[in-house]
Amino acid sequence: MKLEEVVIRLTLAIIIGGAIGYEREFRNRPAGFRTHILVCVGATVISMIQLYDLQYTINLIKANPELATSIKADVGRLDAQVISGIGFLGAGTIIRDNGSVKGLTTAASLWTVACIGLAIGMGYYALSILSSIAVVISLVTLKRFESKFLDKNKLVQLELEYLEKNNMIQKITEYFHRRNIKIKNIEFIFDTIEKDEENVYEKSLFTIVVPKYINYSQILKDLSSFDGIIKVSIL
User: Fold this and answer.
1) Which candidate, 15, 8, 34, places its Cα nearest to that of 124?
2) How confident is the model at residue 197 (pLDDT cuts 50, 70, 90)?
3) 152 — phi, psi (to 5°)?
4) Using 50, 70 and 90 to split pLDDT, how confident is the model at 154?
5) Which residue among 30, 191, 201, 229 is the one 20 to 30 A from 125 at the CA level?
6) pLDDT (average), residues 133-162
């Protein structure tokens, strides 16, 4: 491979990785501009190394035909390691907070950038450029479409431990009704009931539909303030 070809592929990797990473950086995501560039360039380098190794093996066999049966070149081995290995980096961008999961889109963009980098290293310029355009469009424009048409109410499971007094279940259901939260199911976990001399402690599992404008942490805060509720957690 000529030096000019190497420069072109690395430059294209920087441009594509930077374009996708800039959008993530603009939205203050864990993996941004530099991370996406490094992932794309790294994948491109691995792909080019694979081509060098393949060409070296072919030249070696041509010079020594007797080695044809003992030397094998696995074209996809390094690519496979990149695709699987990028999962560890993507996992670092995923955050679970109060029952909600954040960072999945950033993790997916890192994985996609790695795949595009492999394509660049192999010399598939049209595929790389068209794929990067599709990714940028998905990240920039489809977010508005998703927010307007696809964002729906969230199904959440709440586990509550409380003192069974003053009709606590009724108070909880009235709170959900006031907040426009629909109750899909209430499961009473009888085998976990605890008793002492003065009080009866019960545990229930509420399956609720939460409107998208309501924050989960606010629900936890409101319910925790109820007199008689011992513990509230999102499963």
Assistant:
1) 8
2) low
3) -120, 170
4) confident
5) 30
6) 80
